[in-house]
Structure to design on (566 residues):
């Protein structure tokens, strides 16, 4: 050994051990000779024999030999063989973290990340969590593509050690990757590929699951895909995360200006989330309404109104739900509330109120309360003076209360607005016996009613088709009507006025006008948006169709209605 002749020394020590096998010192020096020859396996065998002769005396040296053997195997790329050597070193000297760390390195190099994660979890249970262990486990989660857990470990590491550089660098990498994927999701959403955009934003959320903007973005996508339950969950989550960020800052703020910018950004996110919640509740209610689930739609609109009490379109939609459930008082209250909040003369609410009062008047007629019915029909006419059905209904109600002058005036309005109405002949016989329609229209009273009707429609007109109606009424003359055949005159007049005076066409007009889209558009026109990906509004509730009241029986001619026409 003194002359570095280790091979001869090994032979000599072997002979000595044969002669005196119980001499522990001979076994130890032979192990050292093997160690000088880099024969780690033989050296370990000698130390194991010495350990048996003196239990526990040479454990550190034996573990070190296994460590040297594992390191040589690791350098040669034999990771699994090196892992076995490091594992033996850990067994001989348990609790030595250096040997366990080398085992972790072998598992990582061999691609056994799941076993690495299990080993790190064991360390955290035995020694307690530290920022270094959190960072190490976060990197393993990242290799396993478990980005949510990776982000959680990074946040835990920063909570224990806010100045940890490794955790800060890893968090920055996650944020940059999340932002890149978010931009990709925005591009897909703008191009109309909503399912693909949803997949991208899911990846972005895995990389940064505490960002309220991402939940807001995904909530908008879910709403556009009509998955309203998921949209509401994401938007509520965005609100909660935004409130948490207000209470405690997760990152170090570098100045008052930066803090102010962050507060402004959170405020804009909260406002946008609130708006999207209102729109989601409304769209969900629209879907329920279209399926006949009026009670469920009402509950959703109640929640929307709790979030945004200044939105007239929500009251209109809830009024439609109440209308379909025959809750006339609640429907009227919502329509009137919307009327106060909207611009004067808005056609959406005016047509709704007209339909509702006409319905209430029809119900009063069924109960025999003709005076109240006439008052309801009068209100309906005030809101929509171009609807011939209302004049017909009020004329019949006036006849019931013997207000023949009012009945005749309404008949003339009906004759002007809807000359093809099937109810005209019997009403003409009862109100103007012995007179033709031309006689009634050419009379002074007919001309006066025509002029008054034109003025009323002109004053109430708020849409282009109503303005065209006023022009047609002004241009109509008795000469043209008399010159043409009766059938031709009726068809022409009906063609000119059908968009306004026909009850069926009026309902179609109501469907086009009574939408929250038109009402909300002015509310959103100048509003700043966050992650706006397209139109925010969807198809809205169709208007309620009022029940058609039964026509009253035609009374026999009396002495009063046998008088000559005016």
């Amino acid at each position: 050994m003194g002359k570095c002749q280790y091979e001869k020394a090994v032979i000599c020590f072997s002979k000595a051990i044969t002669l005196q096998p119980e001499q522990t010192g001979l076994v130890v020096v032979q192990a050292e000779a093997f160690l000088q020859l880099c024969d780690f396996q033989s050296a370990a065998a000698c130390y194991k024999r010495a350990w048996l002769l003196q239990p526990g005396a040479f454990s550190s040296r034996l573990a070190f030999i296994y460590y040297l053997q594992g390191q040589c195997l690791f350098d040669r790329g034999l990771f699994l063989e090196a892992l076995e050597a490091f594992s033996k070193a850990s067994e001989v000297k348990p609790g030595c973290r250096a040997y366990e760390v080398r085992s972790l390195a072998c598992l990582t190099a061999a691609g056994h990340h799941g076993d690495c994660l299990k080993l790190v979890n064991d360390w955290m249970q035995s020694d307690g969590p530290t920022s270094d262990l959190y960072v190490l486990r976060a990197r393993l989660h990242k290799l396993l593509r478990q980005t949510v857990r990776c982000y959680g470990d990074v946040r835990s590491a920063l909570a224990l050690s806010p100045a940890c550089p490794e955790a800060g660098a890893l968090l920055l990498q996650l944020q940059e990757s999340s932002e890149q994927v978010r931009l990709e999701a925005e591009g897909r959403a703008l191009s109309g590929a909503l399912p693909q955009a949803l997949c991208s934003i899911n990846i972005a959320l895995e990389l940064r699951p505490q960002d309220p903007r991402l939940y807001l973005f995904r909530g908008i996508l879910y709403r556009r895909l009509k998955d309203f339950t998921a949209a509401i969950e994401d938007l509520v989550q965005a609100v909660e995360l935004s409130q948490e960020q207000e209470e405690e800052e997760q990152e170090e703020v570098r100045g008052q200006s930066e803090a102010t910018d962050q507060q402004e950004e959170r405020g804009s996110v909260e406002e946008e989330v609130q708006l999207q919640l209102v729109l989601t509740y409304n769209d969900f209610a629209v879907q329920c309404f279209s399926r006949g689930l009026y009670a469920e739609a009402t509950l959703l609109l109640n929640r929307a109104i709790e979030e945004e009490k200044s939105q007239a379109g929500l009251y209109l939609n809830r009024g439609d739900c109440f209308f379909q459930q025959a809750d006339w008082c609640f429907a009227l209250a919502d329509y009137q509330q919307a009327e106060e909040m909207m611009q004067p003369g808005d056609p959406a609410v005016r047509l709704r109120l007209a339909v509702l009062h006409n319905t209430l008047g029809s119900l009063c007629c069924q109960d025999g309360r003709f005076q109240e019915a006439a008052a309801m029909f009068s209100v309906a006419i005030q809101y929509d003076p171009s609807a011939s059905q209302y004049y017909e209904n009020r004329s019949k109600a006036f006849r019931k209360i013997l207000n023949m002058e009012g009945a005749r005036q309404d008949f003339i309005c009906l004759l002007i607005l809807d000359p093809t109405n099937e109810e005209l002949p019997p009403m003409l016989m009862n109100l103007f016996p012995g007179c033709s329609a031309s006689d009634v229209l050419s009379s002074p009273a007919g001309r006066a009613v025509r002029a008054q009707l034109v003025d009323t429609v002109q004053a109430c007109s708020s849409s282009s088709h109503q303005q065209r109606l006023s022009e047609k009424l002004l241009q109509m003359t008795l000469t043209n009507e008399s010159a043409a055949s009766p059938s031709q005159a009726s068809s022409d007049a009906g063609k000119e006025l059908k968009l306004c005076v026909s009850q069926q066409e009026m309902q179609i007009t109501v469907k086009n006008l009574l939408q929250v889209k038109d009402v909300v558009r002015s509310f959103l026109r100048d509003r700043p948006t966050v992650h706006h990906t397209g139109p925010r509004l969807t198809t809205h509730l169709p208007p309620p169709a009022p029940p058609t009241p039964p026509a009253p029986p035609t009374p026999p001619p009396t002495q009063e209605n046998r008088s000559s026409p005016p």
